[in-house]
């Protein structure tokens, strides 16, 4: 995969470039300012542009907006240290393909980058929980898939249908105590505080048909 790295933290860029190259990626160019980043991305037209949200000479969001005409050829991944909902919403509207928190292990950032580069909407868990609750987030369903196990997804679907714990347990062939444990795991992973909130999220991301 061909990638351009755009970040004003030189040590991060150098470490990321070395690790990507070792995995067979082609690092076309690096940029340490937003002004340089737009030029090198337009010049190289990479599969993926990894862009720092907090460029000192101008935010990554503005850069993503200016590169909107390059998508879908070049996918854009926003590197962020923030899970601020307003910033997430703005990035979604700007056309970002995914988010990766720079507080995550670099291996995790690379895994997210690879999926975004192949056209999948992807976030890490730190950003995902906030992103799912942002209006118009196109990757909400995929985000649920990434955060939950298959069993937890089954539980969420049934919460969305309004099933009681007993009925949910019976349908899944598990004990009520096990069902309660799964429900709590779902609530924790999705960052919600009640079954009702989880059910509403299940409907919103399309796991449950509103007409049913």
From TrEMBL:
Residue ranges occupied by any HTH luxR-type domain in the UniProt entry: 141-206
Pfam families: GerE, Response_reg
SUPFAM superfamilies, sorted: C-terminal effector domain of the bipartite response regulators, CheY-like
Keyword Transit peptide: no
Family annotation (InterPro entries): CheY-like_superfamily (IPR011006), Sig_transdc_resp-reg_C-effctor (IPR016032), Sig_transdc_resp-reg_receiver (IPR001789), Tscrpt_reg_LuxR_C (IPR000792), WH-like_DNA-bd_sf (IPR036388)
SMART domains: HTH_LUXR (SM00421), REC (SM00448)
Keywords linked to the UniProt accession: DNA-binding, Phosphoprotein, Transcription, Transcription regulation
GO molecular function terms attached to this record: DNA binding
Record-listed 4-aspartylphosphate modification sites: 52
PANTHER family: DNA-BINDING TRANSCRIPTIONAL ACTIVATOR DEVR_DOSR
Stated name of the protein: Two component LuxR family transcriptional regulator
Organism this protein belongs to: Candidatus Protofrankia californiensis
